[in-house]
Amino acid sequence: MNNMFDENNAEHKDNSVANDTIYKSETAKNSKSWTWVVAIILAIYLVVAIFFSFMTYPNAKINGENLGIRKISEAKNFFDEQNTTIVGRDNKTIELNNKKSGLNQTPVEKQVYHQNGFLWPIEMIKGNDINIKVAKSVDAQKLKDSLKNSELFKNVKEPKNAQLKLENKKAVIKKEELGNKLDLDKVVASVTKGFNENKDKIELSSEYINPEVTAKSLEQNQKELENIAKASITLKMPDGKSQKIEDNSIFLDENYKFEDKKVRIFVDDLKEKYEVVGKDFDFTKHNGQPSKVTAKVFGNEINKKETVAMITDALKNGKTIDSELKYSRRSRNNGVLGNTYIEVSLADQHMWYFRDGKLVLDTPVVTGDPTINQETPTGLFEIWSKETDRFLRGFNPDGSKYKVHVDYWIQIDYTGVGIHDTQSRSAYGGNIYRGGGSHGCINTPLRHVVTIFNTAKNGMPVIIY
To answer: What is the pLDDT of residue 39?
Structure first.
């Protein structure tokens, strides 16, 4: 029995020894494995550390912009490689290389970028963003040339103004077209500003040359234009003929906007056509000699202000009018000399009165005194007012006032020249007017003034030469 116990004890001892041997063997194996793991990790660390001693981190930045993996020694080229993106209309987008386009950045520090490769795990986790001070400068001409030759300035579409058009007496607005034409100087200014503010993307808007006239700005004129289209204007001309304005668009500018100055031009054209003041007339003197006389106060005088106002009112309010022009003065013969007139010769100091081509009277007269610069004006005039029992007032050459009563007064111009009797005169003609002449009027014997006053009508031509 003792033998059996000893045998069991011995067997147990042998098992314990075997197990201990196995444990020690496995421990040794595990220790060796960890050594390899540490060695491999250390090797990887050292390889990466060496790599990042020469190369930048993938997330490396300079002044907030990604540097990318490159040789640390080449990081100084980073500023030369930077681009500016410019976004315009019609999906036009360009990339400008800053340096090639005159946008220059020069580091003020010798070392542009630095990192400690052996601290790569820490620096990569926290990020390595190096702030470098740079000096900026812009070559404006170089930038302008780069932009001018870019896609932004190719295939340019000009802006087009909105228009108001007349269609079947309706005002139709045609919308404006923006186009894509840029103001080069404004683009240069915006890119320069963005560059100085460290922007790498610039969106263009106010740099475009936009239409000056928009559809919205024309809306307020739409009703006015419809009135202009609807207006019907017929004018009776000085010669008695009626003229209808067939196309009211002659009073609109190129953008179909009413332009009041065109109404004034229209009336000026009427005055030029129908008024004769300032024009020369062929005239045959009493002795049959041909002559020319310039109209001074003669024919119809169209009142420009009132005529313009009448036409403008009709246009703006869509009115229908059939009216005479407005006049400041009307002439019976509408600017035609005819064969009924009064002729006065200053050299002869004589007057002739013809009616229907026949001589009614001829008489000596006394005209303005040339020795005191009071000559009677020459030219073609007409009778435009007649009065009786009238006082004539004015100034003598010495500045004193005069007041003279006349029985008959026939005015022929705006300055106060007329034909009248003179109670103080007993002689007429000859050289009396030199030193004893009037203040410019035509002094005529009373009985002849009466004849003229009673038979001559306003508008009768008076020719003085």
So the answer is: 83
Question: How far, CA to CA in Å, does 201 sit from each of 26, 35, 106, 276, 344?
Answer: 64, 53, 20, 70, 88
What residues are paired with 85 via a beta bridge?
Answer: 95, 201
Q: Which residues of 100-138 are buried (b: 16+ CB within 10 A; e: fewer)?
A: ebbbbbebeeeebbebebeebeebbeeebebebeeeeeb
Can you give 152-167 as a three-state secondary structure string? HHCCCCCCECCEEEEE
- How much is the pTM? 0.55
pLDDT band at 1 (very low <50, low <70, confident <90, very high): very low
Please list the residue range(s) of the chain that carry CATH number 2.40.440.10.
Answer: 341-464
Residues 6 or more apart in contact with residue 80 via CB below 8 angstroms: 98, 99
Q: DSSP letter string over 267-318?
A: HHHHHHHH--TT-EEEEE-TTS-EEEEEBSS-S-EE-HHHHHHHHHHHHHTT
* Bridge pairing between strands 65-66 and 93-97: unpaired
CB atoms within 10 A of CB 29: 9
Helix axes 304-316, 215-230, angle to 10 degrees: 110
Cα separation, 90 vs 304, whole angstroms: 52
- Tens of pLDDT, residues 125-159: 888 888 878 888 999 999 999 999 999 999 999 99
CATH superfamily of 341-464: L,D-transpeptidase catalytic domain-like (2.40.440.10)
d(CA 433, CA 106): 97
Query: 103: closest CA among 230, 228, 219, 193?
Result: 193
Q: Provide the 10 A C-beta neighbour count for residue 340.
A: 20
CB 364 within 8 A of CB 386: no
The reply to whether CATH 3.10.20.800 applies to domain 217-277+300-329 is yes
pLDDT at position 123 is 84
| Bridge partners (DSSP) listed for residue 55 | 71
SS percent in the chain: helix, strand, coil, step 5: 35, 30, 35
